[in-house]
């Protein structure tokens, strides 16, 4: 069906131009909501505190602006409250110095012990043993032994003969 010029003009006048959305600034309601969530409120109470309908609390929480605000606040809190390994090490070293000043060798040893544990000096060592012999040949040789020969080998009564396995 062909449109007349009058119909085309009428359609163009009623057609809405869709503008691309740009990220908006964080509103006061969103900021209040995010702060309430960070303080430990559940979504319903956070929505009430911000003046947002309770039914839309989940949607507000999922908005990019609120997510970015919560993530930034959590990162700041983490940086402030995180006790790092070096901080603990410095505390132990200070305690060792105090024990040295007080001539208390037991607490000096205790502090050194804790630092050694922190640094992993008491962790078990792992040794890796690599066999250079072809494991299939060894497996086949063990399978060919009789039960008595295997029992002798297991009880360490068998003699070991150096040599080369020919297969």
Task: Outline the structure in words.
The structure is a single chain. By secondary structure, the protein is mostly helical. The protein has nine helices and no strands. The chain is 62% helix and 0% strand. α2 (28-38) crosses α5 (64-81).
Measured as a percent range, the helix fraction is 55-70%
- Sheet of most strands: none
Sum up the overall morphology in one term: flat
Return the average pLDDT rounded to an integer.
81
Number of DSSP strands?
0
Radius of gyration: 37 Å
C-alpha termini separation: 88 Å
Short overview:
With 167 residues, this protein is an all-alpha fold.
SSE order and pairing:
Elements lengths: L4 H10 L13 H11 L4 H8 L6 H6 L1 H18 L3 H17 L3 H15 L15 H10 L2 H8 L13
Helix pairs in contact: 2-3, 2-5, 6-7
Highlighted features:
167 residues, mainly alpha, 9 helices
